[in-house]
Amino acid sequence: MTKRFLSTLSIDAVPPGETGKRQRWILTQDFIYRSEALGTFTVPAGFETDFASIPRIAWQYVDPDDPCVLYPSIPHDALYNWKGVMATGQKYTRKQADDVFLEAMKEAGARWDIRAVAYRAVRIFGGKYWNEDHSHPALP
Predict the structure, then answer these.
(1) For residue 1, how many other CB atoms are within 10 A of its CB?
(2) Would you tell me how many other CB atoms lie within 10 Å of the CB of residue 66?
């Protein structure tokens, strides 16, 4: 199996009061991921994530705090934040971003049923996040 997570996750909590409804985390070092479809890309230090925004209805199947979902959420959140264009100029679709999430969950060891539910959740509910402005000053 090809190693896809090429760096260690290093994060700090964003202070309370600055996060909105969900706790947000900030990367303290670059997080590098190798995708079969999109190649290797870097989520830069300073990027903020809320990890898995799993709809509450899916929590009976998918634990939003499971590392097999948390780690894959970082490249997925970044791809959604970048709205289809990486810093290199490489373009991708929302479906490709969601497919990276699925691929990363498999790499992280998530069971097939958890992958299926989490993937369907992002396909069904992710469109509103893809279309919202979540730009972050640390991103190119």
Answers:
(1) 5
(2) 18
49: nearest Cα among 82, 18, 15, 23: 23
∠ CA 80-117-123, rounded to 5°? 35
Residue 120 C-alpha from the chain's centroid: 15
φ, ψ for residue 131 (rounded to 5)?
A: -85, -15
Domain boundaries, the chain: 11-131
Sign for the pseudo-dihedral over CA of 39, 32, 74, 88 = negative
User: How do residues 46-65 score in pLDDT, each as one tens digit?
Assistant: 999 888 776 667 667 777 77
The reported pTM is 0.85
Q: How far is it, in rounded angstroms, from Cα 19 to Cα 36?
A: 33
- The angle at the Cα of 31, spanning 30 to 32, to the nearest 5 degrees, equals 115
Question: Cα–Cα distance between 4 and 67 in angstroms, integer?
Answer: 15
Token pair of 32 as six digits: 């590098």
With b meaning 16 or more CB within 10 Å and e meaning fewer, what string describes 8-27? eeebeebeeeeeeeeebbbb
Q: Would you tell me how many other CB atoms lie within 10 Å of the CB of residue 117?
A: 18
